[in-house]
Amino acid sequence: MCKISIIVPIYNREKTISRCIDSILNQTFVDFELLLIDDGSTDNSLNICKSYKSIDSRIKIFTQSNSGPSAARNLGLRHSKGKYIMFCDSDDTVSVDWCKNLYNAINNYPNSLPFSAIITLDDNSNIINKTTYAESSCIIPIKNFFNVQVKGLSGFNVNKIFINEILQKNNIQFDESLFINEDLKFILNYVKFVDNLFYTNTLDYNYYVNLNSLSKSYNNKIFDKWNGKYEYWKDFFKSTDKQSYSKNLKTCCDQFLYLFITSLSNTFDKRNTMSFKDKYLYNKSIVKNSNFQECIKIADCSKENYIYIILLKSKIYFLVFLFDSICKIKSTIIKH
Q1: What's the pTM value of the predicted model, to 2 decimals?
Q2: pLDDT tens across 18-32, in order?
Q3: Helix ranges, 15-144 (H)
Q4: Residue-wise pLDDT tens digits, 157-212
Q5: Residues 6+ away with beta carbon under 8 Å from 274
Q6: Residues 91 and 12 sit within 8 Å (Cβ to Cβ)
Q7: Residue 37: which of 81, 85, 82, 89 has the closest Cα?
Q8: How far apart are CA 314 and CA 139, in angstroms?
Q9: Is the separation of the CB atoms in 236 and 285 below 8 Å?
Q10: What is the DSSP letter of 142?
């Protein structure tokens, strides 16, 4: 048995997979197996993987018809032999101490979920952002896990190390029916079986984003993503004590109310190809959504327009739409 199984799902990544594999093979920690899971690639990705397998015996290749990253990661989990599990995306790279730092963390703090900071870069490797939790390493009680969400580090599986026995014993897998929030659901299912979290303030994971794709991409149903996340967090809070539940739910509502409200304007983004009627009906369903209404009731709404909040609470979207339209017209007149 090796110490760590590293699982990399791959779909049509011939341009980035080499830099990903190179960074993993360059680890200072060497006792690992690298499971490359080809998810039915139609480009040269699989051949590139095979060329690496011929020069490093730690590499194992598994293939499947295109079924998505969750199915690919689950295939990797079924074949993993390591005591611990780590994940890496085929677009990204890791530092030479990525494995070592997380391995040391979980050995120093057994039955914990260690996680590290993340560097976000563009395609030219220019640093866009460094996402950290604290200035120094620290232990975090499970009941305070939502604080990690607030910092933007909870929903990634690539900056964490998992105990394989916990995953296998409790049949924790990625939900293959999901196309959003699958990582968060996997992690929230897992942390119910560990004692605490441990943050190591090392910048070991390099997350690459294509700024051009981001600016052109559009999700006309972003509310569904936020609503799903809210459901998963609320379910997780139920596993904490009563006092922590109330405190966490309040913090959660404070954050998600803003996301829910912005999703209303997102629907009417000019890139949305839905008909006006469908946009209107979709936003009408958002306003009536029970989680949205729960957030309005619990969250601190002092920073929002008082009249707007009252109208949202009424669940009458026509009035919300009318008020929003008047505000936009007023704003346009003032600018001119």
Answers
A1: 0.93
A2: 999 999 999 999 999
A3: 17-25, 45-53, 69-79, 98-108
A4: 999 999 999 999 999 999 999 888 999 999 999 999 999 999 999 999 999 998 77
A5: 220, 267, 282
A6: no
A7: 89
A8: 43
A9: no
A10: G
